[in-house]
Design a protein that fits this description.
With 91 residues, the chain is mainly α. The protein has one helix and no strands.
Length: 91
């Protein structure tokens, strides 16, 4: 400590140095996290696209299932009518 420098001035300089070092470390960490986010970001985009395709496929399968269910219902009605000797009503 020099003669004109107080303890408070010395502490302030040490604090400024510590803050500068902290800012550098945070900046470096932010850069490395940004790189990781870029890698995960592209994977996230791919997964989102796959999810959209799966949802579209799910909707198509649900529609096909509904059509199959309706067809089975009509077939059951026809079979019951035939077994009971009734005329089959076509829809």
């Amino acid at each position: 400590m020099s003669t004109g420098e107080s303890t408070l001035d010395l502490a302030a300089r040490r604090l400024e140095g510590a803050l500068a070092a902290l800012e550098q470390r945070l900046a470096a960490r932010g850069r490395s996290a940004g790189d990781e986010a870029g890698l995960f970001g592209s994977e996230r985009d791919e997964l989102a696209a796959e999810l959209d395709k799966a949802r579209t496929r799910e909707a198509a399968l649900e529609a096909a299932g509904a059509e199959a269910s309706a067809a089975l219902g009509r077939a059951i009605s026809e079979i019951k009518a035939a077994l009971n000797g009734q005329a089959v009503v076509q829809e």
